[in-house]
Amino acid sequence: MPYGGPPRSLRLRKIVVINVWGSWCAPCRAEAPHLQKVYEDTRKQGVQFLGINTRDASKSNARNFEKDYGITYPSLWDPTGRELLRFEGTVSPSAIPSTVVIDRQGRIAARALKALSEAELRKLIDPVLKEG
């Protein structure tokens, strides 16, 4: 996690989608292609994606997951779940997968504590994109 202030994406007033996942998580595997597709479709509109891989004891498990599902957006490796605790009140450390959409002002615009389909994820992001 970045230290010393808000992440650069928040300072630049970008929409940020944070997804918490684990390679061991079957629902995470189901939603991974949908997240990648929406990322590809929205990144030119200024939407940034960040994954947080949690509870994978090995980085190789996380890297293999990203390779297998063609994930190209960045992820942080958080094997103990300690970094998730920094999101207190935002992301439940026990709810995996979970997704949070942060608007251009750095506010939580939407959250989901389940695996998302492409359509469900777009329903969370599209209203924030329309805010301009």
From TrEMBL:
PROSITE patterns for the chain: THIOREDOXIN_1, THIOREDOXIN_2
Pfam families in the cross-refs: AhpC-TSA (PF00578)
Keyword NAD attached: no
Single GO MF descriptor: antioxidant activity
GO CC annotation: cell envelope
Keywords from the UniProt entry: Cytochrome c-type biogenesis, Disulfide bond, Redox-active center, Signal-anchor, Transmembrane
Main localization category: other
GO BP terms, alphabetized: cytochrome complex assembly
Subcellular location: Cell envelope
Classification via PANTHER family: THIOL:DISULFIDE INTERCHANGE PROTEIN DSBE
Protein name (Swiss-Prot/TrEMBL): Thioredoxin domain-containing protein
Organism: Streptomyces cahuitamycinicus
